[in-house]
Amino acid sequence: MNHSPDYWPTLNWQTAEPLHMGLNPAKLQELDTALTTRYKSINGFLIIRQGHIVFERYNNGFGPDNPQNVASVTKTILSALVGIAIDAGYIQNVEQKVLDFFPEFTPAPGEIQKKAITIRHLLTMTAPFAWQSTAKGYEPLDRLRRQKNWVEFILKILGERGQIGKFQYSSVGTHLLSVILTRTTGKSARAFANENLFRPLGMREIPEPDMGTFSLDDVFGKNVKGWINDPQGYTTGGWGLTITPRDMARFAYLYLNNGYWDGKQIISQEWVKNSTSEQVKNYGYLWWLRESGSEFTYFAAGYGGSYIYCTPAKDLIVVIASKMSPKPLDRWPLMEEFIFPTVEQG
User: Rounded to an integer, what distance in angstroms lies between the CA atom of residue 267 and that of residue 82?
Assistant: First the structure.
């Protein structure tokens, strides 16, 4: 951010004409056409420049007040919660050993790697898990869904095969972070988020879900509501959050303002900096990192094509909420073709 905000979108976002905020209206018209022709799986698309909505489109029956399943964007929000918990002293630091939070679990004598894994490894996707050598490398999330105790299952495969420090994308590892959050704060990740993140920013508070079953649709699909739980009541750490596109933008705006919001430091500047700096190749603390020419962007990404893009030098946020469809068109060309070339330097 290169200026102090003249207002905070806690209650409502202000809008502005694209031209007044340095965006080319003709290019945005081309973007609008692309969204209705080539990118039909996108339900909501927002562009925020200097804290103002300059472009907002909805499709497929969705609107600004409709929460949407954002899949792995959940991970990035969980990263913020871990940072808040560390700031408040619930968790000491990212170097704490994961197994310290699970005294009921006793590793076998030879499981050296399991004992060495830290919170940092979970935040940076550098903890090994047992499925690394499978044919396609997919983690067994459907198998996880069928377990009576997810935590026990995850701890068993934690640290098996692979090598600590090597990037291995994992949703089950982030679930352990949610459990650690609950064991240290005494609150579910959902309740902790409502109190310490969502409410202060004016975001919709997430209701407690009714997990009647753990069917595919209840855990990953059309029945996902609120922020789902595992069978023991732990909020899912790797996916399962439903949120509105405007609230996705509020979360991004907090990061563009270095964790500060209307007179209060919600997340420490240090945590924001570390989270959005390269910890391993192209990755921070559950944030993806990307450079395109001179533009540096950090972003959250979810299955089906849901994204939160933050480009600090341009004081720019782009939010994309999408259907849970397999193999969606890549979203990044929308940034490079329609947005970056038309935005003046912040």
Answer: 10
Six-digit token string for 245: 């596109």
**pLDDT score, position 2:** 47
- Coil vs helix vs strand at 265: strand
Claim to verify: residue 141 and residue 192 sit in the same structural domain = yes
Please tell me the chain's helix, strand, coil percentages from 3-state DSSP, rounded to the nearest 5.
35, 20, 45
CB distance 27 to 343 below 8 Å:
no
Structure tokens that stand for 96 in this block: 């704490």
Return the pLDDT at 111.
Answer: 87
- CATH code of the domain containing 89: 3.40.710.10
Q: Of the candidates 198, 219, 240, which is a domain's last residue? A: 219
Give the residue from 283, 330, 281, 336 showing the smallest Cα distance to 314: 336
The CA–CA distances, whole Å, from 171 to 127, 149, 159, 223, 240 equal 11, 16, 14, 19, 11
Which range of residues forms the domain containing residue 310? 14-68+287-342
Kindly report, residue by residue over 26-77, the tens digit of the pLDDT. Answer: 999 999 999 999 999 999 999 999 999 999 999 999 999 999 999 999 999 9
**Residues in CB range of 89: below 8 A, 6 or more apart:** none
Reported as a pLDDT band with limits 50, 70 and 90, residue 3 is: low
Q: Could you tell me if residue 62 is inside a domain?
A: yes
CATH number (domain holding residue 54): 3.30.450
For residue 135, what is the DSSP state? S
pLDDT digits over 188-221, tens only? 999 999 999 999 999 999 998 889 899 999 999 8
**Contact, 207 vs 266, CB < 8 A?**
no
Sign of CA dihedral 70, 75, 78, 80: negative
